[in-house]
Amino acid sequence: MAARVGSRLVVGGVCRAWVSRPMSSQPGTTDATPAADLVVHDNGTASFTFGNPASRLSLDVLEQLATAVQTAQQATSVRCLVLQSRGDVFSSGHNLRELQAASDAEVRHVFGVCSDVMRMIACADIPVMASVQGLATAAGCQLVASCDLAIASSAATFATPGVQIGLFCSTPGVALGRSVPRKQAMHMLLTGHPLTADQALQHGLVSQVVQPEDLKDATNALASTVAEASRPVLRLGKQVFGQQMGQAELSDAYRMATDAMVANLTDIPDSAEGLAAFLEKRPPSWSHADEQP
Length: 293
Description:
Elements: E1 2-4, E2 37-41, E3 45-49, H1 59-74, E4 80-84, E5 89-91, H2 96-101, H3 104-123, E6 128-132, E7 135-137, H4 139-146, E8 149-153, E9 157-159, H5 170-177, H6 182-191, E10 195-196, H7 197-203, E11 208-210, H8 215-227, H9 231-245, H10 250-267, H11 269-279
Helix pairs in contact: 1-3, 3-4, 4-5, 5-6, 9-10
């Protein structure tokens, strides 16, 4: 059984709060963006499906995505969010017609909102996973790189082709350079040449590749596996991994991770339940409570 969640924008959350201003009417912009779908499932997962036919990351789509991330992480039953799309394109990046018709201030606003949304995904309390069935290009590739996990169809391709049209993919490069090795990121950014799904797996842009007909089932299986874990443990683990990876000194990273292990063991009730269940050879019964009573 699935329940639809309204698209209310909640300002705040774990990342820096941002408030969106609507773009002015854009001459030459013909894309009407249908409402995207956020569905909460009864297995601890939620899925967000882009409604735009070409999955362009126009301003309204970015706002829908921000709403979905914030709504999903505030739903206490959700422990994994899946981002997905329909058709042959996962996401074709920004709406170039929207950018072409916008003022300098509006262009800065669009890129700023996009950067905020990518940070929201990185900072979200729950793991966020991309399920990529087709082309992920420019900011669409950035979106994949920003997710914690990415499962791809063998038919999917990934590219940052902005250099070919005179608009270097600088903001996609932020996420890409933190997801794949430096020289591979520069190869993609400087040439615009796409990666196949297998190449994306080889370089670490995605975490799993399956046949197109298996993508839906494999996505559900992976998301369900992640959602079997305790929510506060997932939150702590994701946050600490991101923080320690940002440390220049190995000793600082280990100090941070050690503090997290202690906090995990002493402050989160589900750690005691997990250890007991393991030693007693039974499945754990998670409370998903944040702190010891």
